[in-house]
Amino acid sequence: QVQLVESGGGLVQAGGSLRLSCAASGRTFRNYAMGWFRQAPGKEREFVARIMWSGCSTYYTDSVKGRFTISRDNAKNTVYLQMNSLKPEETAVYYCNVNLPEADYWGQGTQVTVSS
To answer: Per-residue pLDDT tens for 62-80?
Structure first.
C-alpha cells in the first residue's frame, strides 16, 4: 500500500525558513516524479514544485522560484522542500504527491503558517 507522510510544517515568521519532508513507502518511487502542492483556506490546491525521478530536473511555480528548493533522496524514498523567505500568503496545507501508473497519491498534508 502506497503511503506518503509529510512532516516539517509549523509556525514561522515572515522571512523565515522551513524544510518539509515527505517519506514514501509501499513501493519503489525512484522511477517517478514527485511533487509538492499547497492549499490555502478557501482556495484550490495549487502546484508548488516537482522533481523528476533522476533529481536532475526540477520545476517550480513562478512565485516560489529562487526561494524554494525541491530535492529527493531515492535511497530513503524521501522528497524535501526547502522553503526560504516565506511570506504570509504562503500559509497553507502542503501536500506531497506522486503520479504512479495505477493512481495519483497524496499525503495527509502538513500545515505551514507564516505570521506577519
So the answer is: 999 999 999 999 889 999 9
